[in-house]
Amino acid sequence: MSGIGLYLSFPGTAAEALGFYARAFDAEVELHTFDEFGRTDGPADAIAHGVLSGPVGLFASDTAGDEEPVSMTGVSVTLLGTADGETLTRWFERLSDGGTVLDPLQKRPWGATDGQVRDRYGVRWLVGYED
């Protein structure tokens, strides 16, 4: 993989979050525990490294020690034009499940359609496409 990637740290919910994203994006998940990686700085079943592979890819783990979990202020993960409008609309709806719609998916005066949602794990997404 080249380019910029997203690596999220969760407060003990990495496996659950990656499962949610796998369902949202019709993707695959690979999980590795602290125990598998020989780590002793957290629970053996905590996620040391997780990979979401598919139309949307990202990495995630559980926090250990005094690491801070993901907190999104002033930043959004963008899915602008990353798929067709029907797919992006479906992703927006799925990300909204248990989350908060910050700005409904809607047609804008400049011709594009976009919206924003903060999912149930606190990750803010900007989803949009050109009509």
Shape: elongated
Share of helical residues: 10-25%
Which CATH first-tier class of the largest domain would you pick? Alpha Beta
Largest sheet geometry: 4 strands, mixed
> What CATH architecture of the largest domain do you see?
2-Layer Sandwich
What is the overall number of helices? 2
Overview of the structural elements:
This protein is α/β, with parallel strands linked by helices. The chain has 2 domains: 7-62, Signal recognition particle alu RNA binding heterodimer, srp9/1 (2-Layer Sandwich); 77-130, 2,3-Dihydroxybiphenyl 1,2-Dioxygenase, domain 1, CATH 3.10.180.10. It has 2 helices and 8 strands; from the N terminus they run E-H-E-E-E-E-H-E-E-E. It has helices at 14-25, 85-96, and strands at residues 7-10, 28-33, 47-53, 58-62, 77-80, 100-107, 112-118, 124-130. A hairpin with a 4-residue loop joins strand 6 (100-107) and strand 7. The longest helix is centred in the N-terminal third of the chain and has 12 residues, at 14-25. The mean pLDDT is 96.
How would you briefly describe this protein structure?
The chain is of the alpha/beta class. The protein has two helices and eight strands.
Keywords:
alpha/beta; Signal recognition particle alu RNA binding heterodimer, srp9/1; elongated; 2 domains
Topology (SSEs and partners):
Elements: E1 7-10, H1 14-25, E2 28-33, E3 47-53, E4 58-62, E5 77-80, H2 85-96, E6 100-107, E7 112-118, E8 124-130
Parallel strand pairs: 1-4, 5-8
Antiparallel strand pairs: 2-3, 3-4, 6-7, 7-8
Organism: Labedella endophytica
InterPro entries: Glyas_Bleomycin-R_OHBP_Dase (IPR029068), Glyas_Fos-R_dOase_dom (IPR004360), PhnB-like (IPR028973)
Domain Glyoxalase/fosfomycin resistance/dioxygenase: 10-125
